[in-house]
Amino acid sequence: MAKYNTILYYCYSTIAEGEQFAADHLKFCKGLGLTGRIIVADEGLNGTVSGTEEACKAYMEAVHADERFAKTEFKVDEVDTPSFVKMHVRYKSEIVHSGLRDPNMINPQIQTGKHLEPVDFMAMKDRDDVVILDVRSNYEHSLGKFKNAVTLDIENFRDFPAKINELAQYKDKKILTYCTGGIKCEKASALLLHEGFTDVYQLHGGIIKYGKEAGGKDFDGKCYVFDNRLSVDVNSVNPVVISTCFNCGTVTHKMINCANPECNEHFTQCDACGEKLDGCCSDACQSHPRKRVYDGTGYYVKVPQPVNVKKDKLELAE
Q: How far is the CA of 65 from the CAs of 15, 61, 79, in angstroms?
């Protein structure tokens, strides 16, 4: 049986002609037989791709061969089947949507919090002068988080800047930020520094790397991931389940998307409620005319969108 890999990565590095790069990169990925989701922006790359070991190795070598991305770190998981069905490469304004688009104010290529390797993060996290800050969204930290972490009531990372004032009480502490793979912390830690926090750190490589290199100690629950696995195990030292079913309150680690595409809520649901509600969060969603077929996974393939490439003058004239 063929072995597959799923690789997670990001790189803040200026890309000229980002739209054209996205179109070319999509063709390249398809040529390797990869599936996945990649965001391209003028500020860099953010992606998760999946395929055979050989295809993923070829992809990583090609990315490293480009001097703009030579320092990219890849987090590699072995999987039984590819973690995506299709290949998407999209050009956007940011590689992670934060609303912090002014590089003169926030620029991860220039200033971020101090990067802590997993073993160093583990050594610091329980100190009295430290606050652990989860910069992820509600549905992510409800599934799993570090013990004693401060979490924020945010639906999306773009809501993070509006929550800075809530953190003012911790300005005299060392702030240790963390997220799934590290990308959100690059801008979150930079914003904290911009707002007057003086001792800011970030977990290098995020939760995923912490699980691989530090055994995931004291990370409670599972880690939400943005592919058809939906969640992965992190803690092999002292694991517990902290999430409960949205519908009945039963302890469960299963995260799904609501089968109603107009809702598409991310929530935890036990198998019994999933069967009863056809993977929906409510009776109203279950009766929605556009409800998708629930196969027990709660993962739904998105309809592919074409890469947005600027048309040249001849095309515009036609």
A: 15, 6, 26
The pLDDT tens digits of the residues spanning 104-133 come to 889 999 999 999 999 999 999 999 999 999
**The model scores a pTM over 0.85:** yes
CB burial class (10 A; 0-12, 13-18, 19+) of residue 202? buried
Please report the pLDDT score of residue 146 as a whole number.
98
Q: Which helix (H) or strand (E) holds 146?
A: strand 144-146
User: Which band of pLDDT confidence, cut at 50, 70 and 90, is reported for residue 1?
Assistant: low
Residue 200 and residue 192 in contact, taking contact as beta carbons nearer than 8 Å? yes
- Contact (Cβ atoms closer than 8 angstroms) between residue 201 and residue 177: yes
- 267, 224, 262: which is closest to 244 by C-alpha? 267
Indicate which residues carry an active-site annotation. Answer: 179
Q: Are strands 144-146 and 200-203 parallel, antiparallel or unpaired?
A: unpaired
